[in-house]
């Protein structure tokens, strides 16, 4: 019998890891958008909230943890995709979905593409915000509100963000509920609800970020 | 009906194959899909040409030997149906039908539309059984089993091992096949003793055979002639987790 | 040749136990030194290979399909009988024995049948332990149903897939032994010859169907579990690859073929729709519990069924057999369907079917209950015929379903060729002239799980078996012979399709050696078959090469064997000038048209010895004695 670490290398171990990290990232996104909506409450509230986060001594270990989760998710999914491609060396001349009850969708067929796009996006996003210009407010905290407004006044950035948010939505459309199935969570009553909730969450999260982006752009346009 | 068939021809395992176009005239709507191919073959045989090789045996949807990808869907467009039970009335005069073999690294083509599915046998050999020798079994009624559990186990046990799940999966994964046997035995009291060992060994074997992983798309369930649901795969994951934690 | 059935004597209930004690045993440490060849992986073959592997023998197991799990046992729907008496309704080993002997129309060996009934009980226990998901009651105990007109509920079932679940149980046990390396599996191999060394079965010649190589395998005994010969009739409910080749080639090497004329015809199959049809699909007999069989009273009445008024319908089974009605045994129901169609009263486009009408059942029980009971069958019927049986009556017609005849075996399941053992449908043993419903699975598993593990040991321990390798001359000669057979098929290069000739053979057998046989029809068949055989060897087209997967070549070889075998079938039917079970000779019937046995002259097993293709085979008789169950005339009035 394989020992425990080897078990995580198996096709099911991979699924468990991808599902688990994916689900944690999904939870993180919910927190993220929860924080971001504070932007509607004005610069003071938003900056106050971000300062609260940044000054917390736990932020460094949490960020490291988050990076690890990302890395595991990325490594495992890329390796899995390559393995899966090897599992079918000769492609079909003609292939189509058999339809319901299959959950196959454009979103599910393009997880690796949406995932890799999101990797690129995250690199840019982190560079822009976390490692971007360090504005300060009058009260001496970091002025992320200004940074956000500045960035979203640039139409190219806005278009990039809007596309990326659609990609997030697509990734979650399949990924959110799939993560739970990967963890073995399933019941006749709950599975249909989970599937629906996953899609609703995908729309809400992507939609939320899009609204924020568009709103920020319109604010910039007004001034 | 007159049909145009594009059929995968491949002389052997290590040579390249290609789609070859055949005309099928005088197709009756009452024919099964395989009977339509029989007629095409009969024509080829009379001309002294090598017949199109395809597997089939019982032709009533239970042996699991037949399997063709018809217009991109394993076993064709009808749900819960093997290709031997698919009838030509499902098609229209003038249709073009593409016919390909199951495609997976673990199912190498033997010839034309025939593939080698012995990987499935090796997965079962790795642990898909209850290790009881013949002779010492207790009375059949010694262990009562609730009707619901027994029915659920039967739902999973209905798998015919045709391999359509692998053929449909974009990852050529054998998870639905494996999970059906793992579920069947994990649900019954007789399967408890070897429960942990079974799931780990079968999964290890499937991975070694070169099948892919599972992306939860559920194409497998949609093409399964016995409509075995992917809830079996979730159960297999739980079984695996349970087994790994206990090792 | 004197046929010794080695049937034990003494009180019937103790015969098997005493016989088991008297048989010699092989020392556990010596078992692995013996190599046993098992051909076939159906219920009999898989269960035999698995249990012999468990005992420690070195087993080589062959099948023609890509996996042992495909064998046609998988298609059995109804169930498996066992004398468990779980229902407290008066069943017993003795009753199952009695019913089987009577059902077989007093043409089976009492000792064998009694053993079968005894072992039926162990089979259920074994299968449950393997995890076979039999149907259960709410209390968690095993459910039973009454099947095929039995007066007790002794049939165990797993939905409509009992054969599948039992076969998968045996297959899983087999794969476990493959994993343990006691059994080596050889899929996609077709047995082409039996190899005899010093008069004993010591090996087989097979064709590797994937690469065409002729392979030789040597062993200490050969066990054939290769099924029946129903596909001789072309259309049957058997799998399309089912064939008589292994048994026939063994027959040509000296094994006697017993009672080939005992064929079973199942009354409730979906009728033939056209020339193209490759096989027939059976629908469970349980349909006759609620459906009413009828045809129009008037010949050639082409009106749709709904427009034929009640007064112009002939519910012929209810009319002729008031007490059993639509539930008469298979052979009676089948013969009557043929009779009304012969009278020109058949229905459907082909005029070769009768109605099975559920209108009354739907009125009585409601659509929902009918759907619950028969939904899957109605669905299957719709899929094949495109007709909705809830609205128009089903159409059914009989089809060949099972063959009771087979290679002759003694009580130890060994043929007259020492070392050659035959199990399951391939042997002739337990069903006599007619098999009861849900008994085929029982026999296959009894032979494989519980009989051969004992009797093979006795053979091995009591016969000197010097080491033989595949270099022996006998192997070389048999392999060359097999290769020549293949070359001969490929050399014909004619213009006729193989299927076309097979279909023609099927028509001869169905018309003249089918449900009702006469001296004239049998002579007609015997005159036609050699001509068709010549036609085959002059004009068949077998394209492709011998050195890769060539399904035309495989098929042609099987049809070639059927063209020889068919003659034996007709010959046996001609020789048996009585009606019994599945064999109905029109000359031998009661005044009201029932099968009439001739016990004085035909209470024997007809075992035929091969004398050359086209030559008259030699008859050897094994007399049957009935000490327990005394022959009576069946009546279902």
And the CATH topology of the largest domain in chain B? Fumarate Reductase Iron-sulfur Protein, Chain B, domain 2
- How many beta-strand runs of chain B? 7
Q: Residue share in helices of chain C? A: 25-40%
Please tally the helical runs of chain C, counting DSSP H or I stretches of 4 or more residues: 17
CATH class group of the largest domain in chain B = Mainly Alpha
Question: What is the typical, i.e. mean, pLDDT of chain B?
Answer: 96
CATH evolutionary superfamily of the largest domain in chain B: Alpha-helical ferredoxin
Poorly predicted runs of chain C: none
In the CATH hierarchy, the third-tier topology of the domain at 473-613 in chain C is known as Methane Monooxygenase Hydroxylase, Chain G, domain 1
Please tell me how large the radius of gyration of chain C is: 24 Å
Strand order of the largest sheet of chain C: 5-2-1-9-17
Structural class of chain B: alpha+beta
How does this structure look, described?
The complex is a heterotrimer of chains A (223), B (247) and C (637). Chain A is mainly α and 223 residues long. Chain A has helices at residues 4-7, 11-36, 43-55, 59-86, 106-109, 111-129, 144-151, 155-182, 190-222. In chain A, helix 2 packs across helix 4 (59-86) and helix 8 runs antiparallel to helix 9. Chain B has helices at residues 33-46, 118-125, 147-157, 164-168, 175-187, 195-209, 219-223, 231-246; strands at residues 3-9, 18-24, 69-70, 73-74, 96-100, 109-111, 114-115. In chain B, strands 2-1-5-3-4 form a five-stranded mixed β-sheet. In chain B, strands 6-7 form a two-stranded antiparallel sheet. Chain B is elongated. Among the domains of chain C are: 267-400, Flavocytochrome C3, Chain A, domain 1, CATH 3.90.700; 473-613, Methane Monooxygenase Hydroxylase, Chain G, domain 1 (Up-down Bundle). In chain C, the strands form five sheets. Chain C has a five-stranded parallel β-sheet. Chain C has a five-stranded antiparallel β-sheet with strand order 11-15-14-12-13. The radius of gyration of chain C is 24 Å and the shape is globular. The mean pLDDT of chain C is 95. At the B-C interface, helix 1, helix 2 and helix 3 of B face helix 3, helix 5, helix 6, helix 11 and helix 12 of C.
């Amino acid at each position: 019998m394989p020992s425990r670490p080897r078990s995580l290398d198996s096709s099911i171990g991979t699924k468990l890891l991808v599902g688990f990290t994916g689900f944690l990232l999904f939870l993180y996104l919910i927190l993220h958008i929860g924080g971001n909506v504070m932007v509607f409450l004005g610069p003071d509230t938003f900056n106050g909230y971000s300062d609260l986060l940044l000054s917390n001594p736990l932020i460094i270990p949490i960020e490291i943890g988050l990076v690890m989760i990302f890395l595991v998710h990325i490594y495992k999914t890329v390796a899995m995709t390559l393995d899966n491609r090897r599992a079918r060396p000769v492609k079909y001349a003609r292939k189509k979905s058999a339809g319901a009850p299959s959950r196959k969708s454009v979103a599910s067929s393009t997880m690796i593409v949406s995932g890799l796009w999101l990797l690129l996006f995250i690199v840019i996003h982190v560079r822009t915000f976390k490692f971007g210009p360090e504005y300060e407010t009058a009260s001496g905290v970091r002025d992320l509100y200004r940074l956000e407004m500045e960035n979203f006044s640039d139409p190219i950035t806005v278009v990039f963000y809007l596309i990326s948010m659609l990609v997030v939505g697509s990734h979650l459309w399949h990924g959110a509920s799939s993560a739970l199935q990967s963890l073995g969570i399933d019941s006749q009553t709950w599975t249909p609800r989970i599937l629906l909730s996953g899609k609703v969450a995908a729309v809400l999260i992507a939609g939320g970020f899009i609204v924020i982006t568009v709103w920020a752009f319109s604010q910039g346009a007004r001034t | 009906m007159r049909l145009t068939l594009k059929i995968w021809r491949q002389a052997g395992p290590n040579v390249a194959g290609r789609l070859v176009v055949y005309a099928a005239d005088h197709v009756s709507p009452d024919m099964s899909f395989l009977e339509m191919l029989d007629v095409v073959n009969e024509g080829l045989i009379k001309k002294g040409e090598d017949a199109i090789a395809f597997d089939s045996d019982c032709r009533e949807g239970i042996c699991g030997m037949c399997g063709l990808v018809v217009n991109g869907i394993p076993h064709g467009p009808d749900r819960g149906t093997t290709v031997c039970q698919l009838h030509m009335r499902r098609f229209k005069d003038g249709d073009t039908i593409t016919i390909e073999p199951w495609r997976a690294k673990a199912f190498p083509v033997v010839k034309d539309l025939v593939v080698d599915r012995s990987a499935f046998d090796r997965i079962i050999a790795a642990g898909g059984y209850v290790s009881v020798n013949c002779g010492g079994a207790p009375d059949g009624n010694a262990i009562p089993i609730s009707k619901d559990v027994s029915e659920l186990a039967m739902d999973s046990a209905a798998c015919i091992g045709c391999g359509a799940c692998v053929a449909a999966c974009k990852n050529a994964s054998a998870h639905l096949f494996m999970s059906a046997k793992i579920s069947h035995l994990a649900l019954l009291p007789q399967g408890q003793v070897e429960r942990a060992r079974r799931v780990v060994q079968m999964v290890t074997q499937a991975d070694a055979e070169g099948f892919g992983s599972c992306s939860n798309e559920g194409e497998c369930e949609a093409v399964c002639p016995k409509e075995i649901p992917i809830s079996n795969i979730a159960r297999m994951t739980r079984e695996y987790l349970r087994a790994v934690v206990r090792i | 040749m004197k046929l010794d059935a080695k049937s034990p004597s003494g009180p019937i209930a103790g015969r098997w136990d005493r016989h088991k004690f008297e048989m010699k045993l092989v020392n556990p440490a010596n078992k692995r030194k013996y190599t046993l060849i098992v051909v076939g992986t159906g219920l009999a073959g898989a269960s035999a290979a698995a249990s012999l592997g468990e005992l420690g023998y070195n087993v080589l197991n062959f099948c023609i399909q890509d996996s042992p799990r495909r064998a046609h046992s998988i298609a059995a729907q109804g169930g498996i009988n066992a004398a468990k008496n779980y229902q407290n309704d008066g069943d017993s080993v003795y009753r199952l024995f009695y019913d089987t002997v009577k059902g077989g129309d007093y043409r089976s060996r009492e000792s064998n049948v009694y053993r079968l009934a005894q072992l039926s009980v162990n089979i259920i226990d074994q299968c449950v332990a393997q995890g076979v998901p039999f149907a259960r009651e709410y209390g968690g105990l095993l459910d039973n149903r009454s099947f095929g007109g039995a007066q007790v509920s002794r049939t165990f079932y797993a939905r409509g897939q009992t054969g599948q679940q039992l076969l998968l149980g045996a297959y899983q046990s087999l794969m476990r032994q493959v994993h343990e390396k006691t059994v080596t599996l050889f899929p996609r191999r077709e047995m082409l010859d039996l190899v005899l060394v010093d008069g004993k079965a010591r090996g087989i010649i097979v064709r590797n169907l994937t690469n065409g190589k002729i392979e030789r395998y040597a062993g200490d005994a050969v066990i054939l579990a290769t099924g029946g010969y129903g596909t001789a009739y072309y259309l049957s409910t058997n799998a399309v690859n089912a064939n008589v080749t292994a048994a026939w080639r063994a027959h040509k090497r000296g094994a006697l073929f017993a009672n080939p004329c005992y064929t079973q015809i199942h009354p409730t199959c979906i009728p033939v729709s056209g020339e193209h049809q490759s096989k027939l699909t059976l629908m469970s007999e349980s349909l006759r519990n609620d459906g009413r069989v009828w045809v129009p009273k008037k010949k050639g009445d082409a009106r749709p069924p709904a427009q034929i008024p009640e007064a112009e319908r002939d519910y012929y089974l209810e009319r002729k057999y008031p007490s059993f009605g639509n539930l008469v045994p298979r052979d009676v129901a089948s013969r009557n369907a043929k009779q009304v169609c012969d009278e020109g009263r058949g229905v459907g486009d082909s005029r070769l079917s009768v109605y099975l009408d559920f209108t009354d059942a739907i009125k009585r029980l409601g659509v929902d209950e009918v759907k619950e009971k028969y939904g899957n069958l109605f669905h299957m019927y719709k899929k094949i015929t495109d007709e909705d049986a809830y609205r128009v009556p089903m159409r059914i017609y009989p089809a060949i379903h099972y063959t009771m005849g087979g290679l002759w075996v003694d009580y130890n399941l060994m043929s007259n060729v020492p070392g050659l053992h035959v199990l399951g449908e391939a042997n002739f043993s337990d069903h006599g002239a007619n098999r009861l419903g849900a008994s085929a699975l029982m026999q296959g598993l009894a032979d494989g799980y519980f009989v051969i593990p004992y009797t093979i040991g006795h053979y091995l321990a009591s016969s000197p078996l010097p080491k033989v390798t595949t270099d022996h001359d006998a192997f070389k000669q048999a392999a060359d012979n097999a290769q020549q057979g293949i070359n001969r098929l490929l050399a014909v290069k004619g213009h006729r399709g193989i299927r076309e000739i097979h279909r023609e053979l099927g028509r001869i057998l169905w018309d003249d050696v089918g449900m009702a046989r006469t001296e004239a029809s049998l002579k007609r068949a015997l005159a036609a078959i050699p001509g068709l055989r010549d036609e085959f060897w002059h004009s068949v087209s077998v394209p492709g090469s011998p050195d890769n997967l060539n399904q035309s070549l495989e098929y042609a070889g099987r049809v070639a064997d059927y063209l020889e075998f068919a003659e034996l079938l007709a010959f046996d039917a001609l020789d048996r000038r009585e009606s019994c079970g599945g064999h109905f000779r029109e000359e031998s019937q009661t005044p009201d048209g029932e099968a009439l046995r001739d016990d004085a002259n035909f209470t024997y097993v007809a075992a035929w010895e091969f004398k050359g293709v086209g030559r008259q085979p030699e008859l050897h008789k094994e007399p049957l004695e009935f000490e327990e169950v005394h022959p009576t005339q069946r009546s279902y009035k």
